[in-house]
Specification:
EC number: 1.3.3.4
Strand order of the largest sheet: 3-19-15-18-17-16-9-10
Distance between the termini: 62 Å
Protein name: Protoporphyrinogen oxidase
Pfam families: Amino_oxidase
Largest sheet: 8 strands, mixed
Number of strands: 20
Shape: globular
Subcellular location: Plastid, Chloroplast
GO biological process, one term: protoporphyrinogen IX biosynthetic process
Bound molecules: flavin-adenine dinucleotide, the ligand C=Cc1c2[nH]c(c1C)Cc1[nH]c(c(CCC(=O)O)c1C)Cc1[nH]c(c(C)c1CCC(=O)O)Cc1[nH]c(c(C)c1C=C)C2
């Protein structure tokens, strides 16, 4: 059996968009294979594998290629931020955004849209595809996500989606989509509201009393140190609420370890409430008042968002990065891997490894949206202290596994809300580490977005691995599939159900940055390290700085664009 490890390099095909130096060269196909450290490895599914191993190009939709081609042609004609024809002369650009994930593309799009006349912007991307963690796949009648499965439909991400023409493609899942937690052999629906928590059977009677008293402030006072999520929640709401509610939540957002995650950094919105009102309940009332006072009129293009819904796009999440990339005045430079940064007379010099050799850009401002471990590497020479701090952000491995069972193999669950898959309503289920199931959680993909798989098929997305199970990634595809199926037999399936159809296993050797105790200090120290090295024009915009939610990185890209432009203007003055 193949034993794929986290250190396995990924060879990225180049035979797609090649959009550099000269008018002629974009058509050229470079045969050179390129190793991209930090790029994520994709294991092809056992079902649809032919010819796709290691070649990400095939996943890039023809539509997006055509769109980028059109934009490319426009950009070349207008000579917008066109790179120099000679590799020896450094190109000059006002803002370079490193990384064409959701954050970088939103940042570049916003700068171009709002400030495009005054400020030039270029996006550079190490891989041959845009989207970063957002990697939707379509094979035959199935469409599935390998990274994020959906987003919280906050106004910023919805507004950006409308701006780039996706208004009609926004999908909001059934607002009654239950989140289930496995507890003592049964799946139990997570309380959807405080009233549910009080009157439902998710917590025992003593557990409810403890949580209720703690929430109104009858609990030990905050200690004089940064608490972990486990400490903070156990102190405020009791051990039971922690184990049944918050421990699985930490898996479902960070794939993390709640004994290590920092309360102020990882669950800042809840942590803040205690300080705001003296207790969680008083703080929530105060925060509600503040939110009402600060509410802005809502953009009329945005859909109404009801209940516990989550969002995506027709065709999958990748539609957003593709639409952002297509709306840029000059397309992202794919296969441009940043290797180093240094201070230059007119700003910051960026050195790239590209299929045409080494290229250099000098920028007034640089926004690094690549992961912290990449930022650490490229800053080694120019800012050793910042580089050292950036190497400390921890990203555990996670695998995402999408499979299909026929509807007939599911048991009728005790919760009475129907089995996964239409017409059963549900978002998915989480498995606390204490419950003896290795899979972290399962998204009911075909319940959430039924048009992504044929009727009668139940498509499930599993996440497995994380901060408390780091050796999972060393297992073979067959072993991972067998583990997922065993776990499904425990939680969902009729005994004797046969192995499912496997659509794909995606290995994320470094998945999600952990906002562990000390995270806020690391963030401050990383910024200070840059400033001490004289790199004031280099901005850290990765999700380890902004927050991990997809909606949050888009919000950052949109809202921080003005600050970057302001900085550029001070440099031009
Ligand atoms: C398995 C998984 C599940 C998730 N589930 C959810 C979810 O359900 N909901 C949710 O809201 N969020 C989820 N997230 C989190 C969310 O997807 C990410 O936080 C978000 O997509 C990060 O976007 P970004 O643009 O900040 O970074 P990235 O997407 O990491 O983009 C950074 C880009 O930088 C590029 N790059 C790297 N090195 C270089 C270099 N040297 N030179 C140039 N470019 C470089 C990368 O190739 C990449 O394209 C999930 C994440 C993972 C991994
Ligand atoms: C089990 C692994 C993971 C699942 N999703 C993620 C991981 C690591 C990543 C993730 N999920 C959410 C976010 C965004 C958080 C935000 O602030 O918007 C991220 C980065 C959303 C989310 N998913 C679940 C919950 C409870 C949340 C928070 C907000 C919400 O209620 O929607 C639950 C959940 N996540 C996963 C599963 C299987 C699952 C089941 C109920 C997968």
């Amino acid at each position: 059996m193949a034993n794929l490890t986290s250190t396995r390099p990924v060879h990225v095909c180049h035979a797609s968009l090649n959009q550099r130096s000269s008018r002629k060269s974009w058509k050229g196909l470079s045969p050179r294979a390129h190793v991209v450290p930090g790029a994520q490895s994709a294991s092809p599914g056992l079902l649809f594998t032919a010819g796709t191993r290691g070649c990400v190009t095939s996943r890039y939709s023809k539509f997006a290629q055509r769109k980028l081609f059109q934009v490319q042609a426009r950009a070349v004609d207008a000579d917008i931020a066109a790179p120099p024809s000679s590799s020896s002369s450094a190109e000059k650009v006002d803002v370079v955004v490193v990384g064409a994930g959701a954050a970088g593309l939103t940042m570049a799009y916003t700068i171009a849209k709002k400030f495009g006349k005054e400020v030039s912007v270029a996006v550079t991307e190490a891989r041959d595809v845009v989207g970063g963690n957002v990697t939707t796949r379509t094979e035959g009648p199935y469409t599935w996500e390998e990274g994020p499965n959906s987003f919280q439909p906050g106004d910023p991400i919805l507004e950006v989606a409308c701006d780039v023409g996706l208004q009609k493609d926004i999908l909001l899942a059934d607002p009654g989509s239950y989140r289930f937690v496995l507890w003592k052999g049964a799946l139990r629906a997570l309380p959807a509201s405080p009233a549910d928590a009080v009157f439902g059977d998710f917590l025992t009677f003593p557990g409810k009393i403890r949580a209720g008293l703690g929430a109104i402030g009858i609990r030990p006072p905050p200690p004089d140190k940064e608490e972990s999520v486990k400490e903070f929640v156990s102190r405020n709401l009791g051990e039971e609420a922690f184990g049944r509610l918050i421990e699985p939540f930490c898996s479902g957002v960070y794939a993390g370890d709640p004994a290590k995650l920092s309360a102020p950094a990882a669950v800042g919105k809840v942590h803040r409430l205690e300080g705001l009102g003296g207790s969680l309940v008083a703080g929530a009332i105060q925060a509600g008042k503040e939110a009402k006072e600060n509410a802005k009129p809502r953009d009329s293009r945005l859909p109404e968002v009801k209940g516990q819904t989550v969002g995506s796009f027709r065709g999958g999440l990748k539609k957003l990065p593709e639409a952002l990339a297509a709306a840029l005045p000059s397309p992202p430079r794919l296969n441009w891997k940043l290797v180093s940064l240094s201070k230059a007379a007119e700003g910051t010099e960026l050195v790239y490894d590209t299929p045409e050799g080494t290229k250099t850009i000098v920028a007034k401002a640089v926004v690094l949206t690549a992961p912290a471990y990449v930022a650490s590497e490229v800053l080694k020479e120019a800012a050793p202290a910042a580089s050292e701090v950036l190497s400390k952000f921890y990203y555990p491995p996670v695998c995402s596994v999408t499979i299909v069972y026929p509807q007939s193999v599911f048991r009728e669950p005790q919760h009475g809300k129907g089995p996964p898959g239409p017409p059963g309503a549900g978002f998915g289920q989480l498995h606390p580490r204490s419950q003896g199931v290795r899979t972290l959680g399962t998204i009911y993909s075909s319940s959430l977005f039924p048009e992504r798989s044929p009727k009668g098929d139940v498509m499930l997305l599993h996440y497995i691995g994380g901060a408390q199970d780091t050796t999972l990634i060393d297992m073979s595809d067959e072993e991972i599939l067998a583990q997922i199926h065993t776990d499904n037999l425990t939680t969902l399936l009729k005994p004797g159900t046969e192995l499912p159809k496997l659509l794909g296993i995606k290995r994320w050797p470094k998945a999600i940055p952990q906002f562990n105790v000390g995270h806020l200090d690391l963030q401050k120290d990383a910024k200070k390290g840059l400033s001490d090295a004289g790199l004031d024009g280099v901005f850290l915009g990765g999700n380890y700085m902004t927050g991990v939610a997809l909606g949050r990185v888009v919000e950052y890209g949109r809202d921080a664009a003005a600050d970057i432009v302001k900085y550029v203007e001070t440099q031009k003055a």
